[in-house]
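INFO batch 0412 | record 1 of 1 | parsing
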Amino acid sequence: MKWALIGASDIASTRVIPALRLAGQEVLGVMSSNAERAEHYAASHDLLGHSDQLDELLSWPIDAVYISTTNELHASQAIAAAASGKHILCEKPLSIDLAQGAQMVAQAKAHGVVLGTNHHIRASGVHEKIREIVGGGELGDIYLARVNHAVGLSERLRGWRLSGEAQGAGVVWDIVVHNVDTLRADLRSDVVEVTALSATGELARSGIEDLTNCTFRFANGVIATTCESYLVPFSRTSLEIHGSLGSLVAMDVMRQDPIGDITITNATGRHDVVVDDRENLYVKTIRRFEQACYGIGEPFSTGADGLAAATCATGVLISARERRTVALSELTSA
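INFO prediction complete | emitting tokens
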């Protein structure tokens, strides 16, 4: 497939362009709102095309676009791409406006194009193994889950993520959406309500959340807690799932790389789980997306999955700011 990049971003540079090429895709060019940046980015990554106009990029002979602009631009750019018949892999969050997110999903369907959300963690071989364990009933009835996704924000990313409220700054739109998407997949259920606390620490400005603690109630009865932060560079990410027959603990698994370990403790003791799949998460995401474009299956995380994660994130923000539990039905029926 032939691709173009909407957004001259760090994530495209460090992760997605290499993954596209490893997956046998062709990257034709890039668009940035800054023409000079687009030209420099194209030269730095051996791309033939560059533009500062979305319409021009969409006129290129491409099959798909990868959108990684700032969050408030995702919806309008994806809707334009759908109207031009291009398949869309959109960086998370799908949209920071739920009505626009729903429109993205509807327009992709109306124009017969695939819309995927780049929730790369789902593609991890460790999480595929976790889904196999949960789905196979090895843990029995699941009651509780817990995610630690408190990390340190890299110096090079300390721009709009810490100050741009209109752009969707902060850990809710950056990290909570990943945690919710991963839990929805691993627990095989949807969130029905959320209660959250948030704080603004030493990094963020203008009241932007850089620390959150969330509790989610799932439709299947599981209660899950998550912790997200930009302030703790030496923490290890983790996921725990606790059931009537066993407890699963997975360390270093909420990451961009194919790492992490799983242990299960049950009536017979503690057991390490073998994970054979250590393939690049982004390559797997792109390969699955390409198959979906050819009518085979769905992306790891669909547009609908991205909208569900964005709905949860909106609920987190409302809960933390209004100090109340939010039923997601309030948001989906609005």
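INFO post-check: The chain has a mean pLDDT of 97.
INFO record closed
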